[in-house]
Amino acid sequence: MVADLGSGSSSPEEGTLFWREVLSDTERRLAAGASPSREARWMVAAVSGIEDDAGLDLPAIPRHLARLDVLVVRRLAGEPLQYVLGRWPFRGLDLMIDRRVLIPRPETEVVVGYALEECNRAAASQPLGEPVHVADLGCGSGAIGLAVAAEHPAARVWCTDVSTDALAVAKANLAGLGLPARQVSLVEGSWFSALPACMAGRFDVVVSNPPYVADSEPLPPEVADWEPQAALRAGPRGTEDLVHLVEEAPAWLTPDGALVLELSPASANTVAERARSVGYRVVGVHPDLVGRDRVLVARRPA
User: Fold this and answer.
1) Could you give the angle at the alpha carbon of 116 between the alpha carbons of 198 and 250, nearest 5°?
2) Please, is 99 exposed, middle or buried when counting C-beta atoms within 10 Å of its C-beta (0-12, 13-18, 19+)?
3) pTM for the structure as a whole
């Protein structure tokens, strides 16, 4: 174990273990992984606070070594790195995450970008100082809604989730948001039923990363064994929640409001066609960072 490699003494004498040695040994232990050097560096930084090379020449502290060993053992057991670290960056935010919520991914950062474009469009068409109303449905860790609030000063964001556990994580992340936290409300409930009735027809943007994996669709063990299944699987077809959001959103959007959804490339055409059949205008499917169909943007039916 890492903690047993040296005395852990805080004085630079013979037998002292330095962080540079600890880092090398952690890389060795993680060698079977895809990115052992990077993961080892993140773990060492998480327990020691050391972010630069110069700090690696400092002696390691025993309690930090013990904590590092726990993280390495968890990672070697297959737990995703993001859960092991307990935090993960998302569009400049430092989000607390654990197994109660999905791991924030780059694909969802792209979704936020399209939601912000729709926020900008809405803000440009209304009086200066008027809020842009946004609903982040099924918010999980709060990644989408909090990022929108942090990046758009006019946004007034409602983050909802049916999971009490997920909302507890979102609440913790909201507490670390700073001043933009005043723009955000957290509400428990299923999809639109969580929103106050008085907001019907007033949302400029409804955005969501809903479950979109079919019940029978295989997933990598690191996903299937660790992330919350209720946030991943939508039903036999995988489009159940997406279709529900497409069908129900018009009643909650302003006349020129937009629905922004993350979806599976396999279901993109199906969901887009459903949006067109409902009567949405300017229905578009947009790619993620590697070119796969990932984001639906549809304007409310006239």
Assistant:
1) 40
2) middle
3) 0.92
Distances (CA, A) of 83 to 163, 223, 290: 18, 11, 24
Give the domains, in start order, of the chain with CATH numbers. Answer: 2-77 (1.10.8), 99-299 (3.40.50.150)
Tens-place pLDDT, residues 158-193? 999 999 999 999 999 999 999 999 999 999 999 999
Q: Are 301 and 274 in contact (CB under 8 A)?
A: no
pLDDT of residue 284: 97
Residue 278 tokens read as 């409902």
- For residue 99, which of 232, 243, 255, 226 has the smallest C-alpha distance? 226
Residue type for 258, please? A
Complete DSSP assignment for 195-257: S-GGGTT-EEEEEE----EETT----HHHHTTS-GGGTEEESSS-HHHHHHHHHGGGTEEEEE
CA dist., res. 130 & res. 133, Å (int): 9
Alpha carbon of 92 to those of 111, 172, 216: distances in Å? 15, 16, 35
CA distance 234 to 247: 16
Q: Which residues of the chain have pLDDT under 50?
A: 1-12
pLDDT of residue 8: 39
